[in-house]
Structure formats: C-alpha cells, structure tokens
Amino acid sequence: MLRMSQSKGTVWAIASSRRFSQVSVLLPILGILAATPLQARPITPAVDGTGTVVTKDGNRFDINGGSLSSDSTNLFHSFEEFGLSEGQIANFLSNPQIQNILGRVVGGDASIINGLIQVTGGNSNLFLMNPAGIVFGANARLNVPADFMATTATGIGFGDKNWFNGFGSNDYLNLVGTPNRFAFDLSPGGSIINAGNLRVGRGDNLTLLGGTVVSSGQVSAPGGEITISAVPGERLVRVSQPGSMLSLEIELPRDQDGLLLPIKPLDLAGLLTGQGGNVETGLRVNSDGNVQLAGSDFGVRNRDVVAKNVTAQTATLSAANNLILVESRLQTRGDLNLLARNTVLVRDSVANPFVAHAGRNLYIQGNRSIDILALNHVSQTPFVSGGNLSLVSNGIISGDAHFASGGSLAMLNLSGEPGNFVSLYDPIISANGDVVFGNYNGVALKVEATGSISGGDIVITGADTSGSIPTTDPHYTELTTSRALILQAGKTTLDNAPNLPQSSVGETNFTSPLEDLLPRGSIQVGNITTQSGVNGIDSGSITLEALGNIITGNVFSRTAGGVFNSQNNAGNITIISRGGSIDTSAGSVDAGASIGSGGNITLMAQKDITTSTLFSYVIRSDGGSAGNINITSKEGSINTTAGNGQILTVAPQKTGQVMLIASGDITTGTISSDGNLGGGDITIKSENGSINTAAGTL
Q1: Using CA atoms, how far apart are residues 514 and 524, in angstroms rounded to an integer?
Q2: Which partner from 24, 153, 220, 509 sits 20 to 30 angstroms from 524, CA to CA?
Q3: For residue 464, which phi and psi values (nearest 5 degrees)?
Q4: How confident is the model at residue 106 (pLDDT cuts 50, 70, 90)?
Q5: DSSP H or E run through 270
Q6: Is 164 inside a domain boundary?
Q7: Tens digit of each residue's pLDDT (9 = 90 or more) over 140-162
Q8: Three-state SS for 79?
C-alpha cells in the first residue's frame, strides 16, 4: 500500500484494493549517469478547442487562455507538444481564484523538460499529464506556489464520472472540485524520468505518478509529502480522504468513442533512445536493450521505481514491480514508506552511502522480498527511524545493514506475523522499543532493545567479518571472531542508539507489539544454535540478557552432532534476567564438545528458573575439560526436572563445578560432575526453602 499526504485539505493516497501479487524477483543489470539522446520539442498549443494560448517572449513561454470549470477554480490547457530546452521557462499564468491548473499533452511525443516550469499570478496547484512519457533533464527546475504533479495517466477524474481525458474532447464546465482519480488505460503506462532538481515550497506536495518512474536527481518537499509511484497498466487510481486507503480498480477506461486510446507509450529504453538530442538523465541503454543506472549492477524494468535523493516531511515510494534504491539518500521529518509489489532492493557503494532516515515511522514492504546490502560506511547507520521501523515481506528479508529505531522494530510477513530474515555479512539491530522477528539464519547477530525481544529459531553460521561493526561496540570482539549471538532486552542505554534530532520525532505515539504478550524487557525465542560443523572452528558464545523474563527452546553452543573427530570448542552460554524469570524447559541447554573443551553455562535470574537438561561435556578420551554449570535465583526457586531433568558436566579430563543457589526451593533430577582426572564440586544451597533431589541421583 501507499501512505497518504495532505494537500490543502486534500489527501493524495494510493493503495491496492488487494494484496500485491507475487512476481519474479529476478532483475536485469543496472548502471549510472550518461547523456541520453533526447531533444525538447517546443511548447505548442493543441488546436482542439481548449483555447490554450502560448506566447514566446525570449526564452519564456507564457501560457494563457485555456478552459475553465463552471466554478472558475480549475483551469485546463491542451498542448500538441510540451518541452523545454536548457534556459527556457514555461510560465503558466494564473489568478487568485484558480485552485488547480491541469495541462495535457496530446501529440504522442514525450515531454522533454530541461528548463524551468513556473506558475505566476495565483497560488494554483499544477498538474502535467502526458501519457507518452515525461523526462526532466538535469537542468529541470520548478517555481510553483503550491502542489505539483507529473503523471503519464490517460485521464484525471473529478468526482465519480467526470474526466479530464488525455485525448479527445472534454466537458470542461463539469470538471469541478478536486481531482481524485487517475486512469491508466495503457499497459505498460508511460515512463517518467527525473534527473533534475524538483522542489516545491514548504508545506506543498510533489507527486510523480507513471508506469515506470526513475528519479536519479533530487526531489524535495520540505514540510510536505513526496509520492513517487509506478502503477500497473489498465488501472484506475483513486484518491482517498484522510484515514482511508485508495484502490486500483480493475477496469479498462476507454475514450468517449469506446475506442482504445490512440498512442502506445514508449517503454523506458524507447523513451531514452527515440527522439535525438542530448539531455543528461542519469540513465543509459545497453546494446542488449537494458536500461541502466550508473555505478550499479541492477537493471530497470517496466513498472519499477528508482529514487536517488528525496527530502520531505513525509514520503512514499511505491513500485508495481521493484523499488530500486542504489546510493539513495531518503530523509523525512515524518513517515517514510518504501513499497514494492516485487522486491525492495537497497545498495550502497564504497564511494556513496545509502541513507533512509525517518523522523517518525519507517515502513519497508517488498511483497516478494527485501534485499538489503549497505555495509560500506561504518560511521553511518543506513536505516534510522524516530518512530517504529518495519520490514514486511512474504519472502526472504535479507538485512545486511545496521538498523536503529526510536520506537519498535518488526520484521513481519504480509499477514502481520513474524517474518524470517537472513544476513550473509552483518546485522546489528537497535530499538528504543520492542524487536519482533521470525526465524533468523546468518552471521553473528546482535539485537538490543529497551523493550522486549521476540524471535523464532536462530541459527548463527559464522563470525561477522564484514568490517562494518564499530570498534566502539562493547561486543566487537565476540561478534567479529566467533559465531556469537547477543540478545539484550530492557536496556536503559543502547550501544547503537538512533541518531535523530528530537524535534524530528514530534508527538509520535510509538506502538509496542509485545506489550500484551510479554513483561517489558523480556526475551522469548525458539531454538538457538551457534554450533560449528567445521573442524577447527569453535562454536559461538550465546548471551541473553533481559530486565524481564527469558523463555527459550533448545540452546546449543556445542560442536555439531556427528563431528566425532572435530577439535572444536563449545561456546559459553550466559542467560541473565535482572528482574524476571528464566524458562528453558522447552529444550536442552548444550555446550558439549567432541575433542575440544566444553563451554560454561550460567543462568542467573531475580525470580524462578525452570530448566530441562543442561550439558557441558567432552566425548573423546583425548579431549579437553568440561565447563562449569552455575544456576542462581536471587528471590525465586530453581526447578531442573523438566524433560530428562539432568545436569551433566562430564569429560575424560577435568570437569567444571555445578552450583545451584536459590532463595526459595530447589528441585533437581540427576546431577553429575564426572572426570577421569577429577570431577568438579557440586553445591546446592537454598537460603529460605527446601531442597528436593528425589527425581534423580547425585
């Protein structure tokens, strides 16, 4: 879906009436700034009875006349051609009564605009419609007093049935009120390219709406909303009022004679090569016909959206296919929405960072997948939100970047359930709220939150060797040298806090998705494994720290099963709840090894601790020592009888100690500390309760 923007009492919003369908994730190849052979055709009025008059005065084209609606608030123009060369000005003449100026281009050629578009004499919104395509060159600029929209729609609707048609006749007198629909009769719809610097005034809105939209230049709407959207062909886009969503109606609007419209827009490659001249657009067409942005390896297809530089109060970028963000700088003081029917693709480079900073909520949805790789700039966190940060997909969420949220952070599927994510190189997540995700598979992971953490199964596959973790991070060594997992909930101070001015956040009410499910500052995850199946590579340490409760399934930092000759060491397992309870009864806690050494297991809670089997062992007779197992409950009880209910530290050499200390009752199964060269001490101490070992042996 696309989010909404305010425009002097009108909200422009675009959304799908149904879930975006799943489409192929495959992309062609992309590349960067190149001179594109396009030539601006002069501004020529259409001879169709609309009454548009164009007067040339040096480099300025004064646009007057036209047709008015019956209430004189909407002014309509019709052009055979509309283009500007460098240094030229299109001057739309208005008056204080005119709220909207709408211009159409009917000649069948794309508009090549490499000069200035302005409105004088009134504070009118300006709509420019050319179904054949619109190109803003590197020298394109705006000087408009209100909102601006460029669209390749074939019609702009007023009310339920009145249309400003892109071709044919119009009943201008009946086109009253505010434009609220946009018809795209052609498939694919025409393309829009912006290589210029398009800027509207403070509080005004800027919209680029087409079949494919590529903005390699700058778009700015300080205090207003930017919408950049590629829509499917043969759709009707409806404008909604605040609080509602807009639909893409499945119908094929025709012209008044019932015939298909008389042009076929050029695709992106045809638009770039078909009209001669030289306008810098930031695009090139390869010999195989693929369109490329400079400096990347991802191509641009029909219905894609590409955006490079966006600055606004709020912004929505929405693609009917892929949303491609290469070296982009996207900055809003309010919400930022990044949406794709297929894939949201993000890349930085060694030369240029990727930045998506939202003063309020940052929402990223790729229906098929989210593909993020932005690790080249250690000093700058790519994804930062003052409010909540959401990554939503029914496919894989690949998050090789650092994420910092001033609210909660959630990785979800389209149904709102926790979504799975992977990272091949380096994920760091920091949230001033809750963190929610499904299963994780990837390299060493750190998640820190002032709220709670809820996750699925976690598999750590290697150390983080990307070089993108700041050396100032207190877990730098663990993360960069081992298969480490670090989950920290209920923190008062984040190691990697979001860096946004407080004024950007405003009065956002941050939502806590876990507040009804877990006590604040809790951790609940599925099975955890940091085990290594590669000889000579140790298993990673596991650290879970929370203010509230901690609940887990299996917790494995052992050498992988079946690797009998592995000389790996197991990792240490540390689970600490500063104010709640610990429950690992749904699985085993295992820090065993084959030939190497077993890891230490430490469980410490303010309240009760409930466990199943706890293992630190060494299998082979030529192996090392087993680790210590320490369980401490400061104000609660300890019960280790779930499942098999065993506590074992066993090794052919020495074993560690076993220590259980609680304020309340202690109930155990079998406890063993057995080593050929000496077993460790077993200590069981209850300060105010009873000790029951009847369920096993010591």
Answers
A1: 10
A2: 509
A3: -90, 100
A4: very high
A5: helix 268-273
A6: yes
A7: 999 999 999 999 999 999 988 89
A8: strand
CA 544 to CA 589: how far, in whole Å? 13
Residues ≥6 apart with Cβ < 8 Å to 267: 188, 191, 212, 302
Indicate the helix (H) or strand (E) that contains 221.
strand 212-230
- Domain residue limits at 615: 527-532+544-562+572-698
Those residues with Cβ within 8 angstroms of residue 121's Cβ, 6 or more apart along the chain or in another chain? 93, 94, 95, 96
Chain segment 157-202, per-residue pLDDT in tens: 998 889 999 999 999 999 999 998 899 888 788 999 999 999 999 9
Tokens of 200: 């509207």
Q: Which of 296, 314, 347 is the last residue of a domain?
A: 347
Environment class of 687 (CB within 10 Å of its CB; exposed 0-12, middle 13-18, buried 19+): exposed
Q: Find the Cα–Cα–Cα–Cα dihedral 472, 476, 477, 482, rounded to 10°.
A: -170
- Give me the DSSP letters along 653-676: S----EEEEESS-EE---EEEEET
> How far is Cα 640 from Cα 630, in angstroms, rounded to an integer?
12
Q: State the DSSP string of 526-590.
A: --EE--B-STT-PPPPEEEEESS-EE-S-EE-SBPTT-TT--PPPPPEEEEESSS-EE-TTS-EE
Could you tell me the sign of the dihedral formed by the alpha carbons of 515, 451, 554, 413, in that order?
Answer: positive
Q: Please say whether the dihedral angle defined by the alpha carbons of residues 82, 86, 88 and 93, taken in this order, is positive or negative.
A: positive
**Are 450 and 520 spatial neighbours (Cβ–Cβ below 8 Å)?**
no
Total Cβ atoms within 10 A of residue 565: 8
In this predicted structure, the answer to whether residue 264 has a pLDDT above a threshold of 90 is no
The torsion angles phi and psi of 531, rounded to 5 degrees, stand at -70, 150
pLDDT of residue 512: 63
Separation CA 216–CA 578 (nearest Å): 50
247: CATH = 2.160.20.10
Q: Yes or no: say if 489 and 523 are a contact pair by the CB < 8 Å rule.
A: yes
Residue 434 lies in a domain: no
Residues 6+ apart with CB under 8 A from 226: 5, 205, 206, 207, 219, 220, 310, 312, 314, 315, 316
Residue with tokens 């050029």: 266
The two three-digit tokens of residue 96, written as one number: 């204080």
Q: 303 near 329, Cβ under 8 Å?
A: no
Domain count for the chain = 2
Q: How confident is the model at residue 678 (pLDDT cuts 50, 70, 90)?
A: low
Boundary (domain end) residue, out of 324, 347, 370 = 347
Distance CA 678, CA 233 (A): 77
Compute the radius of gyration of the chain from its Cα atoms.
31
Q: Which residues pair with 495 in a beta bridge?
A: none
